[in-house]
Amino acid sequence: MSFGYRILGFGAGGGAAVLEFDYLVVAGGGGSGSDDGGGGGGGGYRTSYPGGTKVEIASGSTITVGLGGTASTGPSPDATSGGTSTAGDISSTGGGGGGNPGQNGLDGGSGGGGALNGSGGSGNAGSYTPVEGKDGGNGGGNNSGGGGGGHNAAGSNGPGPQVGGAGGDGTANSITGSATPYAGGGGGGANSSNIANGGNGGGGQGGNRSNGTNQAGDDGKGGGAGGGPGGSPVRVGEDGGTGAVILRDPTGTSLTVAPGSNQTSTDSGATIATFNVSGTISF
Questions:
Q1: If phi over 0 gives left and psi between -120 and 50 gives alpha, with beta otherwise, what is residue 251?
Q2: By 3-state DSSP, what share of the chain in percent is helix, strand and coil, each rounded to 5?
Q3: Is the Cα torsion angle 174, 176, 177, 181 positive or negative in sign?
Q4: What's the DSSP call for residue 157?
Q5: pTM above the 0.85 mark?
Q6: Is there a contact between 204 and 166 (Cβ–Cβ < 8 Å)?
Q7: DSSP reduced 3-state for 231
Q8: Are 260 and 254 in contact (CB under 8 A)?
Q9: In this model, does residue 59 exceed pLDDT 80?
Q10: Of 174, 175, 255, which is closest to residue 5 (Cα–Cα)?
Q11: What number is the average pLDDT over the span 184-195?
Q12: Dihedral through CA 273, CA 276, CA 278, CA 281, nearest 10?
C-alpha cells in the first residue's frame, strides 16, 4: 500500500493497520542501595537499529515505558528494580536494584551492584540474544558499593577500602538520527571522598561521605541510580531513571502518539515516535 502498512482482518468489521518498525526498547533503571550502597543496574536495552529484524505493531497499540526503580531509604525498604518496557512482542527487563550493606544486587536487564561483600546481580534476566545488559559489580569488604551494570559493560567491583565501583557504560544508538547513549549503570556509594562515576548513558554517580551527593538515574535513558554514601544517620539511595521506547518507520507514514509528553519527528524520510511515558500509537 502507498502508506507502507497492511491491514489485518477482513469482513464487515475491517481490521487494524499494521506497520513494521525499527525499535529501541529501554527498560527503567534500578534504584540504588543506601549507606555505601550498590548502584542500580541500567534498564534492559534491545534494538533492531540498524539492520535488524523489525517489530510489527498495529495501529492503536499500547506502548509501555518502564518506570525507574525506587531507592532504599534506610536499612529497609530495599531498593527495587526498574519496570519492563514493551513494544509489540519486544520487551526489555528493568535494571536490578542495588544492595544495602551485606546484600547482593538484584538481577535485571543489567544487574544491580552489591554492597559490603554482597555480589552483583546478574544481567540479561530475559535471557535474550544478543544480551540486554551486563552484570553488576560486587561490593567491597570495607564500605564500598559495587557499580550497577550497563548495557555495554559490567559494573566495577567496589575496590575498597571505602571506594565505590563505577557504573557500567551503556550503548549509544542513532535511531532518532542523533547518537544518544542509553542504559548506563549507577556508581557505588562510598565512605570516603571518592566519587564513583555512573556509566555513560544516564547512570547516576555514587555518593561519598564528604558531601553525600549521589544521583538518580536519568529519565528517558533507563539509567541506574548512584549508591547512597556512608555516614550517620543512614544516607539514602536514589531512584532509577525511566526507560524509553523509540519506533522508526522507514516508509514515512504519518504517526500519532498519546499522551502529549510523547512525540514524533522525522529523519531522512523516516518518521519516528518517541515514548517517554506509556501511551498509544496510531496511523
A1: alpha
A2: 0, 25, 75
A3: negative
A4: P
A5: yes
A6: no
A7: coil
A8: no
A9: yes
A10: 255
A11: 92
A12: -10
Q: Note whether 4 and 17 are within 8 A (CB).
A: no
DSSP state of 132: S
Quote the CA–CA distance of 231 and 212 in Å, as a whole number: 8
Which pLDDT does position 141 carry in this prediction? 82
Provide the 3-class DSSP secondary structure of residue 200.
coil
Whose grid coordinates read 543506601?
A: 34
Grid cell, residue 137, equals: 559489580
Mark 106-124 as b/e (b = at least 16 C-beta within 10 Å).
bbbbbbbbbbbbbbbbbbb
Whole-number Cα distances in Å, 34 to 115, 155, 228: 9, 17, 4
What does the DSSP 8-state code read for residue 140? B
Strand-pair partners of 180: 173
Q: What is the C-alpha to C-alpha distance for residues 45 and 50, in angstroms, rounded to an integer? A: 14
Phi/psi for 230 (5° steps) reads -80, 165
Half-sphere exposure of 159 (CA within 13 A, CB side): 9
In the prediction, which pLDDT does 74 show?
Answer: 87
Taking only the tens place, the pLDDT of each residue in 74-109 is 888 999 999 999 999 999 999 999 999 999 999 999
pLDDT tens readout for residues 149-189: 999 999 999 987 889 999 999 999 999 999 999 999 999 99
Strands of 69-198 (E only): list them. Answer: 85-87, 90-92, 171-173, 180-182
- What Å distances lie between residue 128 and 5, 72, 93, CA to CA? 28, 29, 10
